[in-house]
Amino acid sequence: MWRSLAGRTLDHMTATANVLDSQRLVTRRFVALATAELAYFTADGVAILALPLHVTGPLGSSERGAGLAFGAFAVTALLLRPLAGRLADLRGRRPLMTGGAALAALAYAATAYADSLALVVLLRLVLGVAEAAFFVAAMAALADLTPEGRLGEALSYNSLGLYVGLAAGPPLAELLVATGGFRVAWLGAALLNVAAVALLRLVGETRPPSAHEADGTLVHRPALAPALGFLVSIVAMGTFLAFITLHAQDVGLAGTSLPMVVYGTTVVFGRLACGRFIDRVRPLVLASGALAAMGGGLLVLALATTPTAVLVGSAMTAAGVVFSTPAFFSAIFATAAPEQRGAASATASMALDLGLAGGPVAAGLVAERHGIAGAFAAAAIVTCAGAGWTLSLARRRVRPSPAPRA
Predict the structure, then answer these.
(1) With 90 as the cut, is the pLDDT of residue 221 above it?
(2) Residue 125: partners with Cβ closer than 8 Å, 6 or more residues away
(3) Sign (positive/negative) of CA torsion 354, 229, 323, 82?
(4) Could you say which DSSP state residue 164 is in?
(5) Span 365-405, pLDDT tens digits
(6) How many CB atoms lie within 10 A of CB 225?
(7) 254-275 confidence digits (pLDDT tens)
(8) Smallest Cα–Cα separation from 373: which of 274, 246, 236?
(9) Residue 170's CB: how many other CB atoms inside 10 A?
(10) Torsion angle (degrees, nearest 10) of CA 60, 62, 63, 64
């Protein structure tokens, strides 16, 4: 009898522990995924500084060549994200995450020995393939690992790996180049991706059992409407990042990097402080408010004639960014069943490529005719229109699209 009672007690304790573990957000797998992303995006940050200097320096090319090499990455990333989403749903998240990081490691290692612009451009195209696989699968894995009702909080914390990595990468690249030249910098980026592969072993496969029913769609159609609002937020962010330093210089701000410091600090500490709040508000309502804050910040920047106004506009824009990405990703994943998360992740991340590439280009065309203030004003109008669009979506009842039949 005592053995039976002890057995039942042990079973109950085990079941209780499993339930509690399933409700925890910060688990070993969650931390391992976030740390792997930190390593991956730090390598990207190394490339941000090293690539243009390498192309225009040892390779003897021009600024045009540096731009070509930098932009080649986005071409394959954008084109292959839908396929990556399909494979993540059909084959699992782990093969794409580890394969993407491993492919990035090989491409960075090869860049260390590339002796021509053509070869560097080819390797950047390969890195775009790696980016599509890694990012899409990692976002789907994050959704798999997150307890129900806490995705906004999870995205807030997880996104810090990207921000911190891209911020830490350039100074690390500067140190590596000063220590051993560009070859050491590229090999350092490769080692960071090797570390990411090792960390991903702790994450394992996260695809839920129901995912075997996935139909392998390339584009998750229910996600398109909220993804349009997300695209607007990325256009606004890209416009800010592209022109804020020049605008600070125009208004006579002594430290032209100060607006970026305000922006980065606000985003990082805002996401840490407000992570638990995000899931208490309907995602699309919060996303609409975030766009409104970004639009207001851009309008302040358009009208700014003093350094103080520039800093206030930067802080307002950053306050919107704190909530925009977690809110939009939460809304997009809310339209997807577990077996559709790869496709939903791909659809959302395509907005990143389009917004970061198209936003600054469009704003630059406006700035040529109406100045930087005009570019900020145009971005503010588009962003406020996006807030209205997103709010109209919030009035609809969003449900996951039905799972395909087996």
Answers:
(1) no
(2) 72, 73, 75, 76
(3) negative
(4) H
(5) 888 888 889 989 999 999 999 999 999 998 775 454 444 44
(6) 18
(7) 777 688 788 888 888 898 888 8
(8) 246
(9) 16
(10) -130
* Residue 26: predicted pLDDT: 87
Tokens 């804020």 belong to residue: 244
Nearest Cα to 194, choosing from 89, 43, 343, 88?
43
> What's the whole-model pTM score?
0.78
Angle, CA 328 vertex, CA 393 and CA 344 arms, to 5°: 95
Cα separation, 240 vs 314, in Å, equals 8
Judge contact between 161 and 271, C-beta under 8 A: no
Q: 261-286: buried (b, 16+ CB within 10 Å) or exposed (e) per residue?
A: ebbbebbbebbeebbeebbeeebbbb
- Structure tokens belonging to residue 155: 């995205």
Quick check: 284 and 327 in contact, CB under 8 A? yes
pLDDT at 78: 86
- Give the chain's domains with CATH numbers: 27-205 (1.20.1250.20), 221-394 (1.20.1250.20)
Distance CA 64, CA 52 (A): 10
CB 133 within 8 A of CB 68: no
What pLDDT does 211 receive?
A: 55
Nearest to 94 by CA among 202, 177, 228, 226: 202
Q: What DSSP string describes 271-320?
A: HHHHHHHHTTS-HHHHHHHHHHHHHHHHHHHHH--SHHHHHHHHHHHHHH
User: Percentage of residues in the chain with pLDDT exceeding 90?
Assistant: 41
pLDDT at 405: 40
Closest CA to 345 of 236, 218, 238, 212: 218
Distance CA 349, CA 278 (A): 20
* Distance, CA of 237 to CA of 321 (rounded, Å): 8
pLDDT in tens, 272-306: 888 888 888 899 999 999 999 999 999 999 999 89
Q: What is the mean pLDDT of residues 357-369?
A: 81
Contact 401/219 with Cβ under 8 angstroms?
no
